[in-house]
Amino acid sequence: MLEFVFHNPTKIVFGKDQTQRIGEFIKEKRCLLLYGGGSIFKNQIYERVVESLKNYGKEWIEKGGVKPNPVLSFVYETIDLARKEKVECILAVGGGSVIDTAKAVALGYFYEGDVWDFFIKKVEIQKALPVYVILTLAATGTEMNRYAVITNEKTKQKFNIDSELVYPVVSILDPVNTYTVPKEQVAYGCVDAMLHLLEGYFTQTYPNTPIQDGFVETLVKVLMETTQKIFESPQDYDSRANFMWATTLALNGLTTAGIGSFGFPNHIIAHSLSAFYDLPHGETLAIVFPAWLKYKFSEKKDRISKFGEAIFKERDPEKVIEKLENFYTSIGVSVRLSQVKIPEEDIPALAENAYGFAKIRNLENYTPQVIAEILKLAK
Amino acid sequence: MLEFVFHNPTKIVFGKDQTQRIGEFIKEKRCLLLYGGGSIFKNQIYERVVESLKNYGKEWIEKGGVKPNPVLSFVYETIDLARKEKVECILAVGGGSVIDTAKAVALGYFYEGDVWDFFIKKVEIQKALPVYVILTLAATGTEMNRYAVITNEKTKQKFNIDSELVYPVVSILDPVNTYTVPKEQVAYGCVDAMLHLLEGYFTQTYPNTPIQDGFVETLVKVLMETTQKIFESPQDYDSRANFMWATTLALNGLTTAGIGSFGFPNHIIAHSLSAFYDLPHGETLAIVFPAWLKYKFSEKKDRISKFGEAIFKERDPEKVIEKLENFYTSIGVSVRLSQVKIPEEDIPALAENAYGFAKIRNLENYTPQVIAEILKLAK
Q: Is B91 found in the same domain as B172?
């Protein structure tokens, strides 16, 4: 195991009927309540939240309308509002897009320049508003980590920040809040969380990490099994709960602590697909990842066997990739560019765009040529 | 999964050559440097620590002499010293005994009454000095948790505290610092950490917890495998590192979050053995646990099978217990009272003592009769 620092200060409050406790945890007086497309009004989440805020004497303003693949222009708008209203904290009620927007606003609030500077690593993050979370969509893990991903619509860049200042202070994870999440969102969340685990597992530079390997394999198995159970019974508490906790643990730093340097090449390529075609992040990952495994086949085949043994009781690496594709297909997720109508002639432009992101993430060996070859394996 | 709150704010700094960074992490000016029997003078740990403290302009006083199964009288003494010297934090350099003593001193410092009041749950903990840790013995997990265990020599009680105020602020885990830990200590650490995992695994009240199960099974496997490797090559970095991180994760709240209520019955019984005979905690656990499994056999046999399948690829529950005993024996740990010369006629008094602790831990069903029956299975 290589050296690491692990420090995750987010308090997780997990379980049924925890949503209405939010007021108890917020220390500040004035909140910005941020949400997405308005599903929180349909399933009583909104009522529970505002009643709790009232009970604890909080003041708040509201802003809805965060969209999937959240965009920079919305972040700018929300920073202006937050400043005008002098809020002291942000309460994100939603999924990854709402939380990531909250994180971006939280640090843009104190910065006089362009908040995008943080995403292109032009300036260092110094200060952020506290962020609180009520999670309504299990997928990204942002509720317990130091990352946020925002898309700059003008430059077509989907970039991330990484700072200990944006760990949410408290995240409430109530599985009941996800009962109405539709199948395709569950499937995308499953793929996303799997890739959070597997990018590290397949790119790590330090080999002897049985704890991290076992944790990744456990979480991947739970994600796959619970996704299938949720498809059968969308209101099964245990399946929603196990799925939710697995997605959170998939990117909270635990499974990558000590594995040495690692990259997120599949995310980089998938982000380009999302930025160009506004496709769901989970779907683009399911298209890219099997192709990446094929591209890296000779280098990674032992690791693919180990993974296959743990997940599918299958050691033949070619069959492991096939079983993985079959799993994605079984939960209704595309595994080829053609299935989402991306023509082959778009590959060079996509590869060029992804390379821009690769450079920022210190993955310069993912040249446009390499990325194009990977994408060709996903035709 | 049942509802839970998970909040572990300890910063872990893990790896080679991290010891000398301690000064960088301590915010306060005046420290009490606490240690045990003096092994830190033999392996350069002491020099590295004080040089770092000097470099960062810290002042400190020192107190050594914490013994295994740390005692209350030493805690009293150290509180007096800490007050007289007006220290602002405690730096524990050692294993579980040193760290638990540091935690007890940290909260006794601010309390005008008897610090033992916290252990018998007579008063609520309100305030504690910050505790920093340099771990030199991997076993108890106290370096990343909210517990401390102290023995009251007068009353022969080995009791614990449980408070979020005693999470260490920073714990440095440098596997190299454990190269000189002798085999028997490694073996006891292995048993102790295994039981931290398995008490929850075998007593949990909520059944559907595949994440926690997988994490427990992973960590138990790693503990067993690395113990054997350390026996062969005491200075193998990876084995020491994986063992160390496994012992820390074994009791940091992660594997028990969501499993419902659970007990530590084996610890309770084992604590009595340690309190009466000053036997190593790990050894008493290895004696008690197989007997407990036999006592609970009909109720737990499915769980024993699941455990056996994951660890030994063996589903026959009787054979699983036998393999567990064989493992303990293979690493030189006793599994019978007779091996440590505890006569059968002592069982009633031991059972009576353990029952006192059981009541405090809300395990009233562990009557003296029940405990005596379990101990008879360990003759």
A: yes
Q: Quote the CA–CA distance of A181 and B114 in Å, as a whole number.
A: 54
Residues of chain B short of pLDDT 50, as ranges, are none
H and E: helices and strands count for chain B: 14, 9
Alpha-helix residue ranges (DSSP H) falling in chain A? 22-25, 45-55, 72-84, 96-108, 116-119, 183-203, 210-232, 237-249, 265-277, 281-295, 297-312, 317-330, 347-360, 368-376
Q: Do residue A12 and residue B3 have CB atoms under 8 angstroms apart?
A: no
Rounded mean pLDDT of A23-46?
Answer: 95
Q: Can you give the CATH number for the domain in which A317 is found?
A: 1.20.1090.10
- Retrieve residue A92's tokens: 């994100």
In chain A, how many domains are there? Answer: 2
Quote the percentage of chain A above a pLDDT of 90: 91
User: Is the pLDDT reported for residue A277 higher than 90?
Assistant: no
CATH number assigned to the domain comprising residue A25: 3.40.50.1970
A350: containing domain: 182-376
pLDDT of residue A136: 97
Mark which of A177, A211, A240 sits at the end of a domain. A177
Q: Are A165 and A246 in the same domain?
A: no
A219 closest CA partner among A236, A240, A198 = A198
Interchain CB contact of A16 with B (< 8 Å): yes
Name the average pLDDT for chain A: 96
Q: Per the domain annotation, does A6 fall within a domain?
A: no
Residue A24 maps to a domain: yes
- Using DSSP's 3-state secondary structure scheme, residue B48 falls into helix
8-state DSSP, A233 = -
> Given this model, what pLDDT does residue B214 score?
98
Residues of A in contact with B3 (CB under 8 A): 14-18
Paired tokens of B131: 């505790």
- CB distance A92 to A133 below 8 Å: yes
The secondary structure of residue B20, as a DSSP letter, is G
The interface pTM score, or ipTM, of the predicted complex is: 0.96
Residues A28 and A143 in one domain: yes
Domain check: are B231 and B155 in the same one?
no
| The model scores a pTM over 0.80 | yes
Considering the domain architecture, whether residues A170 and A187 belong to the same structural domain is answered as no
Answer whether B217 sits within 8 Å of A222, measured CB to CB. no
Q: Which residue of B has its CA nearest to A12?
A: B6
Residue A303 included in any domain = yes
Q: What is the mean pLDDT of residues A140-151?
A: 96
Residue B304, min C-alpha distance to chain A (Å): 19
Sheet holding B30-35, edge to edge: A4-6, B11-14, B170-173, B131-135, B89-94, B30-35, B59-63
Is B4 among the domain residues?
A: no
A83 part of contact set with chain B, CB < 8 Å = no
